[in-house]
Predict the structure.
Amino acid sequence: MPEAEALPEALIDTHRHLVLRDSLGYAWTDTLPPLAGAFTPGDYDRLTEGAGIAGVLHMETGVDERDWRVTHHLLMSDVAQKRDLTDPRTVRDFAA
């Protein structure tokens, strides 16, 4: 039987989610008690202290549409005014 591979010395958390209620809206979580509060980078750091996590990949999903529009208003303006809206590549690039 082959020898088991050793665990890496440092781990990367590739799926960290934060809930930043001071700056973004998450209406879909309001009725879910485990998700109804904030979860900040400090909360994450306290919960993972000593776990050997060397870095993270932050995921930002499920933000209220209003907040997405505020965050991306310059991009939307640029696309609407300077790009060919009939070109499928424009839609593809904007959606990415």
